[in-house]
Amino acid sequence: MGRARILIIEDDRAIVEMLEYNLQEAGYETISSLNGRDGVRLAGKERPDLIILDIMLPIIDGFEVCRILKNDDAVAHIPVIILSAKSQETDKIVGLELGADDYVTKPFSPRELIARIRAILRRGQGQESGGKIRKGDISIDTAKHRVMVGSEEISLTLTEFKLLELMARRPGVVFSRAQILDAVSGDDTMVYDRTVDAHIKSLRHKLGSAKDYIETIRGAGYRFKEV
């Protein structure tokens, strides 16, 4: 899989820059927002793998951001780590009851925060690896490498399966060819830029009546349709 993407919702630019540096050094991609309203919008648009959320934000505070996200089925599954100077026990309880996965108080250790992020992301991967992804008419069994379209099982190559799983996990997110190459290529399979389109074409053909779930975004890449 590709590098995990982390959304930072924090109004202190110095903290944002420090987080971006440390997270990128640890191998993560980052996107950021300086206020709660734009943070909610970015979460819905980008579908990050994890969100770092401050509480004392302009426009919409962090508690309200967390409540909005956890009540939106499209993004409710995204883990949230609250990162705040509010260190009272009552604040921690409110954040966790709203659905946050962890609560870290400022000042904080970047190394400890990254360790917490890794633990949460590992937990999420472990939960998904033995389950199924269901999007509209398509059902993907990630443990058995089986794909069903309606009641019919279809046969995919390893590369086609990886492509479908990659996009189905993050519907609505546009993947560039470079991102697809990074996510799909591995020790057991190699994919080259000029063959990405061919793999997509073959995958669509095999999906049959569900082929339109894979959308082409001209000049940008491909995405799995939101359903």
Mean pLDDT: 86
Poorly predicted runs are 126-130
User: What is the H/E string?
Assistant: EHEHEHEHEHEEEEHHHEE
Strand order of the largest sheet: 2-1-3-4-5
Molecular shape: elongated
Oligomer: single chain
Structural class from helices and strands? alpha/beta
Q: Number of helix segments?
A: 8
Number of strands: 11
CATH superfamily of the largest domain, called what?
A: Response regulator
Q: Can you tell me the CATH class of the largest domain?
A: Alpha Beta
State the distance separating the first and last CA atoms. 22 Å
CATH topology of the largest domain: Rossmann fold
Measured by DSSP, the beta-strand proportion falls in 15-25%
Please tell me how large the radius of gyration is: 19 Å
Task: Give the name of the CATH architecture of the largest domain.
Answer: 3-Layer(aba) Sandwich
Number of folding domains? 2
Largest sheet data: 5 strands, parallel
Helix content: 40-55%
Describe the structure in your own words.
The protein contains eight helices and eleven strands. With 227 residues, it is α/β, with parallel strands linked by helices. It has two domains: 120 residues, 3-Layer(aba) Sandwich (Rossmann fold); 93 residues, Winged helix-like DNA-binding domain superfamily/Winged helix DNA-binding domain (Arc Repressor Mutant, subunit A, Orthogonal Bundle). It is elongated. About 2% of the residues have low confidence.
